[in-house]
## 1
Amino acid sequence: MTPTPLFAPGEPGALARLRARFTLTQDQVDLAGVSLKLPELADPLAYIESRGGDDLPYWTKLWPAALVLAGLAAQLPPAAEPVLELGAGLGAPGLVAAAKGRRVVLSDLDGDALEFARAAAELNGLGELVRVTALDWTKPDPGLGQFRTILGAEILYQPAIYPVLVEVLAKLLATDGTAFISHEERPFVIGFFDLARERFQVRRTQRKLRGPEGETTVYLYALTHRKD
């Protein structure tokens, strides 16, 4: 029988726990004028192979869509209420918001993603502003409450979960709130927004980023509750 862990993934102390499990490196990135240190796996391929199955840990990479969303997070106005990031992975957009003084809730369902998100908060001295929590979109904890600002970068890569995501956004987004979702250009993603428009007003902008692999188009959507 596997012993019950003495901690929940994402609790304080994650950086030390990860260093006990893996060889880590540290990447320093500049996101929207905020310099962040992100813990990374020294051998990500070995980690992916060790997990097995089809559930690939996409969160181990800092995607262009997260860079764009981090730029928006840096411009959020000061406010007392926390920001929620869905499917946070490394949590870069949320960490940028925290570095700018906002309280942030980083959420994910993958235990190791939660550990890396908490470790990043600790590495950047943001532990007091950042809460890390497991969030199952099919049954969100009612105690989580609602949020006026929700962030989500690259959370649309599985079309099967689109109806679930629309429902969880409807539950967690405050009446006067806005959910910001960013993703790289993919034709099938339009299926999510076809569903979302039944519950939300949807606005879209786009940005082109240049990187080692060429030009990438990132779309940024703002969702607000329909008034009709």
## 2
Amino acid sequence: MPGKLEGKVAIVTGGNSGIGEAAAEAYASEGASVAIMARRKNEGTKVRDHIRGQGGTAEFIACDVSNPSEIKDSVARVLDIFRRIDVLFNNAGVAGPESFPNESFEQWKYIMDVNLNGVFNMSNEVWPHMVEAGGGSIVNMSSGAATLGFSEYIHNVTGRVPPAAYCVAKAGVDAFTRYSASMGGKSNIRVNGVRPGQILTPMTNRDGKGEHGLKKIFDVLQILEGTGYPEDVANAVLFLSCNDSRFITGEIMNIDGGMPSKL
């Protein structure tokens, strides 16, 4: 029985670990040829080799999504190898240790360049090729931080909150998702987003304790108990990328264990 993405070509940015790795493996398991784009070659090639070892098709392409020229070159290479682009998962992201009002402009700019400008530039680069292919699906990585608000009590209990730049960038991703979905309808390009909450990944396990760096916030706000994992997000991303969600666009799916605090 053919997979849900049989014959399709998918790009996963930040596909060398965490949610990106899980999504790349999910795509490949459903028949897609996967282009893994990330900065760290050793990790990226391990994901590629694992997919190939499972009988899938994958290629690693070094790419820093904060650099528009690298995006252009990387997308060109995908086309050289696979000849088309059907799916894009804009997953690459970064955060930082500083938070407003003690947040440097250097951190602000870098977070924006990766988390928001990278989504714009990558989407802009693949768009005409999806039009040429007769349509496509884009899934953008947002975050619960896009809608986060917190009281002084929560701030004091948790001891840390995300950088302002991260929250603003992810809110921008939500807005760009709705905007580009509106523009994509006539070309059969669907654009949706996912907003993970407490998902344990190498990036969120900041202190090496095997728990999310903002666990104390989630313990206060989350309805369901426990931690989510990359596969929980990858399953949603796969759904939004394939024909199972053919009548869904412009939506942001929350994968957060229930967060009644959304503003």
